[in-house]
Amino acid sequence: MIRVPAGSFWRGSDDARRPDEAPRHRVQLSAFELDETLVTIADYRAFVDATGHRTSAERFGYALVAVEGMKDWAWQRAAHASWRRPFGDLMEYAVSDDLPATAVGHDDANAYCHFLGKRLPTEAEWEYAMRAGSSDRYPWGPTPRRPDGRYGLNHWQGPAEGEEHSKNLLDDGFAYLSPVRAFPPNAWGFYDPVGNVWQLVADWYAPDTYKRAAAAGVVVDPQGPRFGKKRVTRGGSWWCSARTCSGFGLQYRGKNVPDAPFNNVGFRCARSIAHDKP
Ligand SMILES: [Ca+2]
Asked: How far is the CA of 168 from the centre of ligand 1 (A)?
């Protein structure tokens, strides 16, 4: 894990394209620790071997899966898909231990973190750590390409507009999931700060979270609303393309039904540090 010292950052934007990203406000955080990579298939297997945990996908008998050639938003129920086999019976797919564990619901992620004495990061902790000081859409700047011209995150590069997902041009090197250290880390050492998989965080989603926080002045260690129907996901995934999904990046607030097992959703764990208040 990487220790993130207490600090503060500006969250949201006054001219955001989406209302739930406004307004800009100051967030102050206590120190915490956070996994430097996404939880991998090997990590999750060790947890399941020790506890016998069954994920929501395993109880349902399917996970929600997207594949090349599929229409946008036409996610399919792939039989026998789970963290062990992210595409289930829908597609032959070579699984390796260093891919992120996917097709897990919020409870499945929580159970893993708690087993290790950890927890999911809050939405604010996630953004602070993934930004690593950046105020741009990506940790390295305003576009998906890093200053060296290479793509900095695993997302989807498709052909012409309107048929984005008909073919994966593979410009970033990966059709689907990528190993958790495949792309360079951000300035604080966190891998996959954006892209590869959406990342589950602790908070319930509400469209007015930022408005409430801003009304309180400087908000300290925000936890999000006490209740909700969907949980926040952040960062964007391998399925996000330039035109069909504006979600990949540091600002977009995704949301999922808690037990929905998508094969483009994963997580990393955090741990509180008792001292060192902001
Ligand atoms: Ca890709």
From this structure: 8
Q: How far is the CA of 183 from the centre of ligand 1 (A)?
A: 11
Provide the residue-wise pLDDT of the chain in tens; the chain has 278 residues.
999 999 999 999 999 889 999 999 999 999 999 999 999 999 999 999 999 999 999 999 999 999 999 887 789 999 999 999 999 999 999 999 999 999 999 999 999 999 999 999 999 999 999 999 999 999 999 999 999 999 999 999 998 777 889 999 999 999 999 999 999 999 999 999 999 999 999 999 999 999 999 998 889 999 999 999 999 999 999 999 877 667 789 999 999 999 999 999 999 999 999 765 55
Q: 209 alpha carbon to ligand 1 midpoint, in Å? A: 31
* Separation of alpha carbons 254 and 236, rounded Å: 8
| CATH number of the domain to which 166 belongs | 3.90.1580.10
**Exposure of 102 in the CB half-sphere (CA atoms within 13 A):** 29
Domain assignment of residue 46, given as a range: 1-278
Q: Are strands 25-29 and 219-220 parallel, antiparallel or unpaired?
A: parallel
Q: How far is the CA of 226 from the centre of ligand 1 (A)?
A: 35
- Asked if residue 15 lies in contact with residue 83, where contact means CB atoms within 8 angstroms, the answer is no
